[in-house]
Amino acid sequence: MTVPTLLIVGGRDEPVISLNREALEELRSEKKLEIIPGAIHLFGEPGTIEEVVRLTRDWFQQHLMPADDY
Description:
It is built from two helices and two strands. By secondary structure, the chain is an alpha+beta fold. The chain has one domain (5-65). It has a two-stranded parallel ribbon with strand order 1-2.
């Protein structure tokens, strides 16, 4: 079984970006890496957590089926 995977990382968190890029290469499922400009790993900068929420929502809407579709 494969699971679609979304990785989200802050644009100012270079070591974590590098680790996420390595992880992305290992995944054999549908995958995407999103980098939030100006953010570090806690996404405490103004507007960054909202961007994380938006990206996550959009990913789930695209990849999760409603329960009645099973």
